Amino acid sequence: MEGGIIFTMPGEELREAHRKIHFRDPRPPHEIQFQLERDLVTLFQPTQDGVQLFFRASAKFAGCPYFFELRFNAALAEMNCYTLRIHASWEKLPVEHSDYFRRSAESWFQYWTKPFQQAPPPDPGEGSAERYRMLTEQALTAEARLSDVGSVQQAILSEMRQGSYFSTAHKEGGCHIRWRESHFICADYGESDLIQTFDGGASFLVFLRKFYDWETSRHVYPAKLAEFDAWKLILRLLRR
Questions:
Q1: Three-class DSSP category at 37
Q2: CA angle 64-69-74, nearest 5°?
Q3: pLDDT per residue over 126-148, tens digit each?
Q4: pTM, two decimal places
Q5: Of 14, 53, 163, 205, which is most buried, counting CB atoms within 10 Å of its CB?
Q6: Phi and psi dihedrals of 195, rounded to 5?
Q7: Listed residues 115, 141, 167: the one ending a domain
């Protein structure tokens, strides 16, 4: 069923779920990739199948493995055609939790696909091959300059000095992390009004890495992400 949720049933138990949505968006592929990485807090790996470009990722949500594929299908004059596939499988998890994982999958699918409006897939041969190649090259080189931890850290500091910021929220309040009056600050709101000020970038980066340690690794727990991957995800969480 196009755009719907499909459950398979080994025996009488629902043990996996799929979602596929075709959508169109004027943004280039890497901007869709970055949005998904920010929303999922998971990095996608770009790959080419012949000339076609796609991105893949995996993560655990509430202990259930999910697999994602974003495929760049065609480049039209003013729109680009994409397909997002999501697969959840709890086949190796306790059977008594199947109903929970099924209901969770429904909720997650709705949440993750909400930003994208269902559209028909492109017809075979539709779109510009030249424009497709150009956008693919842009996507594959969009962050070529960010080749190590230091370069990602400097990109974060630079963007914050230009107005980008971090923000968190929870039922007791939250915090804003930004550059203000020649300092990096973390200002709590809600139940706490604590303000932390950092005179230099080095001390702020130590704080920032610790602050987002759980967030960047929660989908691979109990493992930890490599430092480079963790900093790339912190970069994604910047609000611009």
A1: helix
A2: 160
A3: 999 999 999 999 999 999 999 99
A4: 0.90
A5: 53
A6: -125, 120
A7: 141
